[in-house]
From TrEMBL:
<dbReference type="InterPro" id="IPR008979">
    <property type="entry name" value="Galactose-bd-like_sf"/>
</dbReference>
<dbReference type="Pfam" id="PF02836">
    <property type="entry name" value="Glyco_hydro_2_C"/>
</dbReference>
<dbReference type="InterPro" id="IPR013783">
    <property type="entry name" value="Ig-like_fold"/>
</dbReference>
<feature type="domain" description="Glycoside hydrolase family 2 immunoglobulin-like beta-sandwich">
    <location>
        <begin position="180"/>
        <end position="274"/>
    </location>
</feature>
<dbReference type="Pfam" id="PF02837">
    <property type="entry name" value="Glyco_hydro_2_N"/>
</dbReference>
<dbReference type="InterPro" id="IPR017853">
    <property type="entry name" value="GH"/>
</dbReference>
<dbReference type="InterPro" id="IPR006103">
    <property type="entry name" value="Glyco_hydro_2_cat"/>
</dbReference>
<protein>
    <recommendedName>
        <fullName>Beta-glucuronidase</fullName>
        <ecNumber>3.2.1.31</ecNumber>
    </recommendedName>
</protein>
<dbReference type="InterPro" id="IPR023230">
    <property type="entry name" value="Glyco_hydro_2_CS"/>
</dbReference>
<dbReference type="InterPro" id="IPR006104">
    <property type="entry name" value="Glyco_hydro_2_N"/>
</dbReference>
<dbReference type="Pfam" id="PF00703">
    <property type="entry name" value="Glyco_hydro_2"/>
</dbReference>
<dbReference type="InterPro" id="IPR006102">
    <property type="entry name" value="Ig-like_GH2"/>
</dbReference>
<feature type="domain" description="Glycosyl hydrolases family 2 sugar binding">
    <location>
        <begin position="13"/>
        <end position="177"/>
    </location>
</feature>
<keyword id="KW-0326">Glycosidase</keyword>
<dbReference type="InterPro" id="IPR036156">
    <property type="entry name" value="Beta-gal/glucu_dom_sf"/>
</dbReference>
<feature type="domain" description="Glycoside hydrolase family 2 catalytic">
    <location>
        <begin position="276"/>
        <end position="591"/>
    </location>
</feature>
<dbReference type="InterPro" id="IPR006101">
    <property type="entry name" value="Glyco_hydro_2"/>
</dbReference>
Length: 603
């Protein structure tokens, strides 16, 4: 799905701002049919949970309603009018006046409603959105809703971040011509000093068959560097400037749809020329071995929850640069498109993850990992869950395929890959991902219960991403034992599969301001020592290709005795203040430029 962009033939009106807001329990039977009678207003984009001092809203399970009036620009007569949501978490029903115009499930990907002929340029309509935050066995991520004896619904889930809900990303009203560019795919390669570009353009609308497609690549100054004709084709960019980690050089592919000598539609798709490949136990970007330094992150900030915020976007990337991080994983769901656009422009490498987190009932078994009931059984996560997972994977790849920053797809976080049925569950998903995008390697983040001996799916993937907490959940406070187990474990994965191995999670909860001269869990020193121990091990494992600390910043979780106002494994606090470990990471990572740290680099 194309990102909304203005062009000589396309306009955009932002619908961000304050909308009327009410929970379904206060909204009447048909909230879309008239003005929402509620004193509350909620900002878009933002999660609604933390905005109000009201536990009924914070812990709400079910539907919440958003509403506003929208005026269609009068200049849009004869144009196609499209309403586009960056995301609504987790499901949406969209009404224009009394009419249902869209339904969408999946809280982290965009969707559109074509309003052509439904709304009239120059007039106003009432836009109402029902937002459903319920998670079940057949949603991704999954969850369970139970009704208590007090009649209240409660939501439980298997992932360790708060189930924020709402209209979390920008909403836009867009115009396109009635015949339009519907999709663009760009795949790049290299031939000596030249870049090779294969492209495909899909067109739609009444007169699509009568149009011809022309494309030209422009550099950052707007100069045309290559041209081609036809809806599918290839061209070369001589003396290409590559997209590189740390230097996000971009070109624009200007796609023009013409008929009878006139322009019907035009759309510019940005792209970067780079290659990605796994060879042996190396991860190559532009043919050079790349070593990942960075974090698993979250879209999580005070008050806004998972709402997209450009100020935090800029500041987070600034802190990544300051720390010497060259990459991050979009744990545990696809992030806002604005984030990936920024990563493209600034040369930050991204591992792009689906929202499939929590496909693991073993987690309920605590540290034994013994699932109380088999994860991949039909009554838990069977065919219907996998179908939804496949649909999400498709949406992710369709959305993010043209981002040069995205170098790998992560199909799931901590699935029960050690349990029977895992292979049957994942084989078709891996096949689908490779069909949709034959160019990018695939990975999944392996849970602690999945070991080199019992994992059933590692051979299907290209990179082994391992989540481990030796020294935290196990061998708590005993870094010496933890070091031994960690090394055995990582060497075991490398030996069994002969593939590159990276650490996709390692971290320790840390209370800022707690200091200790001992190996005291929760202290700032322990977090630093814990990371330094992992780094010693990484530097001894030849197949090792990268380190992503869990987590970039503290983040909110559901309440529980294991969490003190959320997960505190951040190297930065939730309001982005550095803990001691941030300085240690900076010492290790700065100046590496994607190369593996030398033996003296332990920090
Ligand atoms: C994990 C999960 C992550 C949690 C983390 C933790 O393995 O992938 O979502 O937040 O552990 O801190 O327990």
């Amino acid at each position: 799905m194309l990102s909304p962009r203005t062009s000589p033939t396309r306009d955009i009106v932002s619908l961000d701002g304050l909308w009327r807001f009410a929970l379904d329990t206060h909204a009447g039977a048909t909230p879309w049919a008239s003005r929402l009678a509620s004193p509350l207003e909620a900002p878009v984009p933002a999660s609604y949970n933390d905005l109000f001092v009201d536990t009924e809203i914070r812990d709400h399970v079910g539907i919440a309603w958003y509403q506003r009036e929208v005026r269609v620009p009068r200049g849009w007569a004869g144009e196609r009018v499209v309403l586009r949501f960056g995301s609504v978490t987790h499901a949406a029903r969209v009404y224009v006046d009394d009419r249902l115009v869209a339904e969408h499930t999946g809280g982290y990907t965009p969707f559109e409603a074509d309003l052509t002929g439904i709304v009239r340029p120059g007039t106003e309509f009432r836009l109402t959105v029902g937002v459903d935050n319920r998670l079940t066995n057949v949603t991704i991520p999954p969850g369970t809703v139970t009704t208590g004896s007090d009649g209240r619904d409660r939501q439980s889930y298997l992932h360790d971040f708060y189930n924020y809900a709402g209209i979390a990303r920008p909403v836009r009203l867009c115009s396109t011509p009635p015949t339009f560019v519907a999709d663009v795919t760009v795949v790049t390669g290299r031939d000596g000093a030249a870049g090779t570009v294969d492209y495909r353009v899909e067109t739609a609308g009444e007169a699509a068959d009568a149009t011809t497609v022309q494309v030209r690549a422009v550099d950052e100054t707007g100069r045309t560097v290559a041209e081609a004709h036809g809806s599918e084709g290839a061209f070369r960019i001589e003396n290409v400037i590559l997209w590189q980690p740390g230097a996000g050089h971009l070109y624009g592919l200007v796609v023009e749809l013409t008929a009878d000598g006139g322009t019907v539609d035009s759309y510019t798709q940005s792209f970067g020329v780079r290659t990605v490949e796994v060879r042996g136990t190396e991860f190559l970007i532009n043919g050079e071995p790349f070593y990942f330094t960075g974090f698993g992150k979250h879209e999580d900030t005070p008050v806004r929850g998972k709402g997209h915020d450009d100020a935090y976007l800029v500041h987070d990337f600034e802190l990544l640069r300051w720390t010497g991080a060259n990459s991050f994983r979009t744990s545990h769901y696809p992030y806002a498109e604005e984030v990936l656009d920024f990563a493209d422009r600034h040369g930050i490498v991204v591992i792009d993850e689906t929202a499939a987190v929590g496909l693991n009932l073993g987690v309920m078994g605590g540290l034994t990992g013994a699932a109380p009931t088999p994860t991949f059984a039909p009554e838990n996560f069977g065919g219907p869950t996998r179908d939804v997972h496949a649909r999400h994977l498709r949406r992710l790849i369709e959305r993010d395929k043209n981002h040069p920053s995205v170098v790998m797809w992560c199909l799931a976080n901590e699935p029960a890959s050690n349990e029977e049925g895992a292979r049957e569950y994942f084989e078709p998903l891996v096949r689908l991902a490779r069909e949709l995008d034959p160019t990018r390697p695939l990975t999944y983040a392996a849970v602690m219960f999945a070991t080199p001996d019992n994992d059933l799916i590692g051979d299907l993937f290209d990179v082994l991403s391992i989540n481990r907490y030796y020294g935290w959940y196990v061998f708590t406070g005993d870094l010496q034992a933890a070091e031994q187990y960690l090394e055995q474990d990582l060497r075991g994965w490398a030996r069994r599969f002969g593939k590159p191995v990276m650490m996709s999670e390692y971290g320790a909860d840390t209370q800022p301001g707690l200091h200790s001269v001992w190996d005291t869990p929760w202290s700032e020193e322990y977090q630093s020592d814990y990371l330094a121990m992992y780094h010693r091990v990484f530097d001894r494992v030849p197949e090792f290709i990268g380190e992503h600390v869990w987590n970039f910043a503290d983040f909110q979780t559901s309440a529980g005795i294991h969490r003190v106002d959320g997960n505190k494994k951040g190297v930065f606090t939730r309001d982005r203040k550095p803990k001691t470990a941030a300085f240690a990471l900076r010492r290790r990572w700065r100046g590496l430029d994607g190369r593996r740290p030398g033996p003296a680099a332990n920090g």
